[in-house]
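It is worth pausing here to work through a concrete case rather than discussing structure prediction in the abstract. The textbook approach is simple: state the sequence, then state the predicted structure, then interpret. We follow exactly that order.
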Amino acid sequence: MSNTTIHPPESLTWKQADADVHVATRDGEFAGFVENDGSGHVVHDSQGAELGSFDTLDDARSALEGAAKRRTRSIRQTLRRHLSRARS
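Step two, the predicted structure:
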C-alpha cells in the first residue's frame, strides 16, 4: 500500500492596489481582482472575465477563491484589456 500526499492549492494572497481595487495572486501568479463599482464588488478572474457582483468584499474574495485556476495573464495585460472594454 502506498501513501500519496496531495497538497491543496495555495490560497490567494490579496493586496489593495487602489481605493476600490483588490488584486489576488496565487503561487506568485496573478489570479484575478475585485473592484468596487459603486453598486457592488465585481470579481474578475485571471483573464479579466467577470465572475459576478457581490454585496461584500469578503463574498467577492470567496468567489474568486472558489474559481477554477486557469491560464494566468499579467495584471498589466488584464487591466489594459478591462480598461479598453470600459472605454468602448
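Step three, interpretation. The CA atoms of residues 15 and 49 lie 19 Å apart. DSSP finds two helices and five strands in the chain.
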